[in-house]
Design brief:
The protein has one domain. Helix content is about 45%, strand content about 10%. The chain contains 6 helices and 4 strands. It has helices at about 5-25, 30-35, 50-65, 85-100, 145-150, 160-180, and strands at about 40, 70-75, 105-110, 135-140. Strand 1 (about 40), helix 3 and strand 2 (about 70-75) form a beta-alpha-beta unit.
Length: about 200
């Protein structure tokens, strides 16, 4: 399979994951209004420095764009950061760059990974699946969009717990029923990948 085909598959699967699970299961209140204008960028290389540079370019592009034209973006790395700890360290670097570039208060990052683990939860707790995406990715969000969406949500502080409970009710079988394609992704691998 060519790298172009791999890249297209990663993009298509990511967009479907957002459509069917993030929006379809009501996990994120501000995803639906911006979905049709969401930009998905796939970095298909395996060089962490290159990926960081490409991410910074996308961050700047979102920051400078008209919010109506480019409200949000996903940066997907299918061939990098398969280990969650390595991914988290990379996220911290990217978050620091966001601050250094002066975008704090305007943009923020949300984190998603096939092996996402919330601190304080059992490793096999199904609540982790609220943030388990087909590939490692960072989501660039405009803070104004978050505030606007949360203003129309009753008890926004309850969203994380509601989502965790929903994942526990769905279970692995329920998730696969909603999106069978996840069976062939790292989300449902039985063991953590090597670093």
């Amino acid at each position: 399979m060519s790298s172009c085909t791999d890249k297209r598959r990663a993009e298509d699967l990511t967009v479907e994951w957002v459509r069917r699970l993030v929006i379809g299961e009501g996990l994120c209140p501000f995803a639906s209004p911006v979905f049709s204008r969401m930009h998905t960028e796939v970095y298909s290389g395996n060089d962490a420095n290159e990926a960081t540079s490409a991410f910074m370019d996308l961050l700047q592009k979102v920051a400078e764009a008209d919010p109506d034209e480019l409200p949000t973006a996903l940066f997907v790395t299918p061939r990098l950061f398969s280990d969650f700890d390595a991914y988290w360290n990379w996220f911290l670097v990217c978050d620091n760059l966001l601050v250094q570039l002066g975008y704090e208060g305007r943009l923020q990052l949300a984190t998603f990974h096939p092996h996402y683990v919330f601190e304080g939860e059992e490793e096999d707790d199904l609540s982790h699946y609220t943030n388990r995406s087909p590939y490692p990715m960072l989501h660039i969000i405009r803070e104004d969009d978050i505030e606007e969406a949360l203003a129309s949500v009753r008890y926004p502080e309850r969203i994380p717990e509601r989502n965790r409970q929903h994942m526990r009710r769905l279970g692995r079988a329920g998730l696969l029923a909603k999106m069978p394609e996840l069976a062939d992704t790292p989300v449902f691998e039985s063991e953590e990948p090597e670093k």
